[in-house]
Amino acid sequence: MSTIGQQIKNIVLVHGAFADGAGWRRVYDDLTARGYRVSIVQNPLTSLADDVAATTRVLDRQDGPTVLVGHSWGGTVITEAGNHPNVAGLVYVSALAPASGETTAQQYEGFAPTPDFVIEVGEDGYGFLNSEKFKVGFAADATDEDAAFLRDSQVPINMSVFEEAVTRAAWADKPSWAVIATEDKSFDQAMLQHMASRAGAKITNVSASHALYITQSGVVADTIVDAAEHALTAVG
């Protein structure tokens, strides 16, 4: 296992839609055991601006260079929030990565649908994942117990967030890394590879579901450590 050197010590983790920060626990435990200072954002999932503001509040509390990590929808959040001066590198965990001026919804154009990832939208415009499809669509490689807990602790997202454009994509100026789950049923695999490649990310592929931040937490943590050790000398 890598150990912390004279490099970045601050890590900020940003969760995605239908989830909260508790899912990062295994990554948190791994990184803190290696000596990193880890903070976890709790996104309200009410708008892109609100989630960026929540992330910025945590970034403001960091005492130096920071690696900013996002899972799924959290990738859109870190793409905007990553312009914060404390952010030295970005890590996308099966995550969205719009370009400047693009919406999250535009990332799906031209790519295959994901029939096992079923969103049910209420009259108020907030979406939950379908309970019966949850495990296969979100956490197929998780234990039944973990998948059930994730399903039953869902945080709904305001579906209008997917129509909000990123103003300036941080990955255009800062180095990025990506961990992509090859068995992800939430996004078309080609879409994930396209977004990460366009961002110039150093890509790690791992056999996992969309819940790879839980089921492959070691691989995710190793990638974050790689970013922490090299972001200050990498070219964005």
Task: Describe, in plain words, how this protein is organized in 3D.
The protein is α/β, with parallel strands linked by helices and 236 residues long. The protein has one domain: Alpha/Beta hydrolase fold, catalytic domain (Rossmann fold, 3-Layer(aba) Sandwich), CATH 3.40.50.1820. Helix content is 31%, strand content 18%. The strands form 2 sheets. A 6-stranded parallel beta sheet has the order 2-1-3-4-8-9, sandwiched between helices. The protein has a 3-stranded antiparallel beta sheet with strand order 5-6-7, with no helix packed on it. Helix 1 packs across helix 8 and helix 2 crosses helix 3. The longest helix is centred in the C-terminal third of the chain and has 14 residues. The N terminus is likely disordered.
